[in-house]
Amino acid sequence: MPFYEYGDVRIRYEEVGSGFPLLVTPGGGLNSRMAAWPSAVINAMEEFKGDFRCITMDQRNANGGESSGPIATDDPWGAFADDQLGLMDHLGINQFAFMGYCIGGCFAESAVNGDFQHLGNFMNVGETQVFQQFWLNGLPIALF
């Protein structure tokens, strides 16, 4: 059970597979946690581990999760982005793809706003009818 810790924050994470790093955040609203993968429509950790180094985490303070720490009320999305980008730094990952399910897509978008240098590509897998495509660091990004 690996943890990433900084200050008062403790983040539980897992990694499987090998290849280009792919951070995948499960859905579940603010209860986004790793235990949700087995019941997800597509279990990204299982589905993509043959092609990517898949990394996932319990979001800070998710019910039933093992991550914890205070969340500043003036910038809660920034706190989650700090956790995700900090974990990638902790793992020595300089560039990665980010796939977020449901609220995980919001996490991915927040990370994009916070750090364009690390993020090579991201996909928001959610419940929207809109499709957009644009480029970041020369790589295509799909928003669903």
Features:
single chain; 144 residues; alpha/beta; Rossmann fold; eight-stranded mixed sheet; 8 strands; 33% strand; disordered C terminus
SSE ordering: EEEHEHEHEEE
Number of helices: 3
Q: Low-confidence segments, ≥5 residues, pLDDT <50?
A: 127-144
The total domain count is 1
Question: Could you explain how this protein is built, in words?
Answer:
The chain has 144 residues and is of the alpha/beta class. The protein has one domain: Alpha/Beta hydrolase fold, catalytic domain (Rossmann fold, 3-Layer(aba) Sandwich), CATH 3.40.50.1820. It is 22% helix and 33% strand. It has helices spanning 44-47, 76-90, 103-114, and strands at residues 3-6, 9-16, 20-25, 52-57, 96-101, 119-125, 132-136, 139-143. Strand 3, helix 1 (44-47) and strand 4 (52-57) form a beta-alpha-beta unit. The longest helix is centred in the middle third of the chain and has 15 residues, at 76-90. Mean pLDDT is 80; it is low at 127-144.
Outline of the structure:
With 144 residues, this protein is α/β, with parallel strands linked by helices.
Please outline the helices and strands:
Blueprint: E1 3-6, E2 9-16, E3 20-25, H1 44-47, E4 52-57, H2 76-90, E5 96-101, H3 103-114, E6 119-125, E7 132-136, E8 139-143
Parallel strand pairs: 3-4, 3-5, 5-6, 6-8
Antiparallel strand pairs: 1-2, 2-4, 7-8
Helix pairs in contact: 2-3
